[in-house]
Design goal:
This protein has 9 helices and 6 strands. By secondary structure, it is α/β, with parallel strands linked by helices. The chain has a single domain, classed as Alpha-Beta Complex (Spore Coat Polysaccharide Biosynthesis Protein SpsA, Chain A), CATH 3.90.550. β4 and β5 form a beta hairpin. The protein is globular, with a radius of gyration of 16 Å. The protein starts with 15 loop residues before the first helix and ends with a helix.
Length: 199
Amino acid sequence: MGRPKALVVGADGVPWLRRGVLTLLAGGCRRVIVVLGAAADQALANLPADQAVTAVVAEDWADGLSASLRAALGTLRADADADAALVSLVDLPRLPVGAVARLHADARRMSLRQATYAGRPGHPVLIGAEHWDLLAADLSGDRGAGRYLRSHGAHPIPCDDLWDGADVDAAPDAHDAASASAAADDAQYGGNAQETAGS
């Protein structure tokens, strides 16, 4: 892609990072922890100004996915009210609010869920607090929670009726950005992102 994904701006003028945070909030997450790595200082400008949003820098981000997930789990452990963590990625700018809400519904401390698309596992995933320490101990290198989810029997949550679950590996080009309708994200998400509470 040629630049950190946290800096990518969609064809509609909304940064992927900002869109992802607003989607999580609108889907029921009461708090969003954003783990930043490369170009963290620049990426901060793409976050919405919201007290429910916390930015954390993974100093060992070059180690891969495990570093980001460990940083998020470490921050979550300090939140006694957190029963579960819903994990998503910045390169899912088309993630619909409905998929977040479906994974997040009735989350419990022992919950372990993974979105599926035509039977294929994807994101988001939901990890109950009872799993956090075991998962953190299992993480290494550029590997996320996939092995843990498989070995501990994560409950599949079909979401292919909502979208295809595909990540985006290429930033929109200048032509796309110029021809797209630049609808403001406040109009798209309304006030729901600020008002929706989650567990």
